[in-house]
Design goal:
Number of strands: 11
Membrane topology: Multi-pass membrane protein
GO molecular function: kinase activity
Catalytic activity: ATP + protein L-histidine = ADP + protein N-phospho-L-histidine
Protein name: Sensor histidine kinase MtrB
CATH class of the largest domain: Alpha Beta
Shape: rod-shaped
Radius of gyration: 53 Å
Largest sheet: 5 strands, mixed
CATH superfamily of the largest domain: PAS domain
Organism: Schaalia naturae
CATH topology of the largest domain: Beta-Lactamase
Order of helices and strands: HHHHEHHEEEHHHHEHHEEHEEHHEE
Strand order of the largest sheet: 6-8-9-11-10
Bound molecules: adenosine-5'-diphosphate
Length: about 525
């Protein structure tokens, strides 16, 4: 099945006609053009029919009026020459004249000839009216009044009974007064049928209708077909654009020719190529940057080891120094510590960049890991006057984790929380489900803005670089934590509100290699 047919079928099966029309430009234009053509054809048919009717009708009416006046004058001469003197003779003469008139007018389409007595006719000499009751009913009172009041022929459009559908045929009734011997004036009417003209008009309209049918059928099909093919490059480009958005940077469209569609394709291809080049440039730049960080940190390791050794000697001997030199030794010790930890962070980041970080998983109780991290940072918490509370379940919260990495994650979260706690308590909550274990570190200090939350895991990000820090301060801690948690197939999330506090949640699967399947803890809970 060709592509267009498959699309049509899928569209027809999958959605209501309205959405089908909405989603396909080809269908929409085909439908609108057909609707416009149908309106034009209907108008054209109405105007043609009206014009045809009036010209055919006028032509025929003139012929009928000429014929009728001939019949009236012939009838009048026949009456004038009649020698009838009794009622029966006048009746017979009238019958003959009407019969003759009917015979001669039949050629012009006369259906019937009537002789009607006017209401004011004198009673003494009366003859019977001639003509069927059905035909008499065709002659209206208005026409009769006109005929009686004038001395020439009058006409009126009428419906002549006789056809099968009961509606009657179109026709013309023409009437004039005739003077009968002794009986006085009588109304004479000739009823002509226009059925043959009507048949011709009906046939012309049918032919027109049949002529319009192929237009109504062929137009939408043709327009749809042309547009479908014309819009193929647009569909291709749209498909290529979504492939590009999905990360397939090699995707291109077939853009041949010089028309607007080809220009669209070429423009897309140019855009895709320059995007690909830019991304390649950024990739290269990022690789260079990663290599630079890795090289520099590795290069710094050796001098730092030497500095550390020298500093260790100085540190050991600090008791024998004067106060100023002793203070310098302490400062040196602090900064070398800081230098070492920063270098360790950089080396760790380089390991992740080189994708050489490995998960050294072992079964451990998260409560024990939390306890160890809290103990190790007791001194910092005490210095900053922050109480660290641990809330944990009685049962084991065992999981297969890389203890060194999870310790590092928790240490980072705890140190951050304590440093940003503004002296208020920090609460660490441990929880477990059948499949996962979770630790939440919640502080009630400065909190974080939405913008900070959005970037808090970015490398070298620091919301407030000017803030006095006791440890760390490179802006690498949380980005390493994120990598550490990702290595466990876990989840690390942040919440914060300025002036209210922050909360960080770590969830890792109990079994190494599994994905996180539940949330034993909420990222943040409303507090009373
Ligand atoms: P570092 O602590 O070395 O600056 P991190 O990656 O650990 O780097 O943290 C990045 C930034 O996130 C911090 O500088 C701080 O602005 C913000 N941040 C982290 N934890 C908290 C917290 N508990 N409360 C407020 N801000 C925080």
């Amino acid at each position: 099945m060709p592509g267009w047919a498959r699309r049509l079928r899928a569209a027809a099966a999958g959605s209501a006609p309205a959405s089908w029309v909405r989603r396909s430009l080809s269908v929409r234009i085909a439908v609108s053009m057909t609707a416009a053509a149908a309106v034009i054809l209907v108008l054209f048919a109405a105007v043609t029919s009206a014009q045809l009717r009036s010209s055919v009708f006028e032509n025929r009416r003139d012929i009928i009026l000429d014929d009728a006046s001939l019949r009236f004058s012939t009838a009048q001469s026949a009456f004038d020459q009649s020698t009838a003197s009794t009622t029966d003779q006048v009746q017979e003469a009238a019958r003959e004249v009407i019969e003759t008139a009917r015979g001669s007018a039949a050629g012009a389409g006369a259906e019937s000839v009537l002789l009607i007595r006017p209401p004011d006719s004198p009673d003494e000499f009366r003859i019977n009216e001639i003509g069927s009751a059905a035909m008499r009913a065709v002659v209206t009172d208005d026409l009769r009044e006109d005929v009686r009041s004038g001395d020439h022929a009058y006409w009126q459009s009428v419906r002549v009974p006789g056809d099968t559908d009961g509606e009657g045929e179109p026709g013309i009734a023409v009437g004039m007064m005739v003077s009968l011997p002794r009986a006085g004036d009588y109304e004479m009417y000739i009823v002509y049928s226009l059925q043959s003209e009507q048949t011709v008009i009906d046939m012309v309209m049918r032919v027109l209708g049949l002529g319009a049918l192929p237009i109504i059928i062929a137009l939408p099909t043709g327009v749809f077909w042309v547009l479908y093919h014309l819009l193929r490059p647009v569909r291709q480009t749209a498909r290529a654009a979504s492939e590009l958005a999905d990360g397939d940077l090699d995707t291109r469209v077939d853009a041949q020719g010089d028309d607007e569609m080809a220009q669209l394709g070429q423009a897309f291809n140019n855009m895709a190529s320059s995007l690909q080049n830019k991304i390649a440039e950024y990739d290269e730049l990022s690789r260079l940057q990663q290599r630079f960080v890795s090289d520099v940190s590795h290069e710094l390791r050796t001098p730092l080891t030497t500095i550390r050794m020298a500093e260790d000697v100085i540190w050991e001997d600090r008791g024998s120094f004067g106060p100023a030199t002793k203070r310098s030794a302490e400062l040196l010790h602090e900064q070398v510590d800081r230098f070492e930890s920063m270098l360790a962070d950089l080396l760790e980041i380089s390991r992740y960049d080189a994708q050489s970080a490995l998960l050294d998983a072992e079964s451990a109780d998260l409560r024990a890991v939390v306890g160890k991290v809290v103990d190790a940072n007791d001194e910092l918490a005490a210095t900053l006057g922050v109480e660290v509370r641990v809330e944990e379940p009685d049962q084991r919260c065992a999981a297969e984790v890389d203890v060194r990495r999870i310790e590092r994650v928790l240490r980072n979260l705890l140190v951050n929380a304590v440093e940003h706690a503004d002296g208020l308590p920090v609460v660490i909550t441990v929880a477990a489900s059948d499949t996962d274990v979770a630790v939440r570190v919640r502080d009630h200090g400065v909190g974080m803005s939405e913008q900070t939350i959005a970037h808090v895991f970015d490398r070298f990000f620091r919301a407030d670089p000017a803030r006095t820090r006791t440890t760390g301060g490179t802006g690498l801690g949380l980005s390493i934590a994120r990598e550490d948690v990702a290595l466990h197939h876990g989840v690390l999330e942040a919440w914060g509100e300025l002036g209210v506090g922050s909360s960080f949640l770590v969830v890792v699967p109990r079994a190494a290699g599994d994905e996180v399947a539940s949330r034993p803890l909420a990222l943040w809970e409303e507090e009373a």
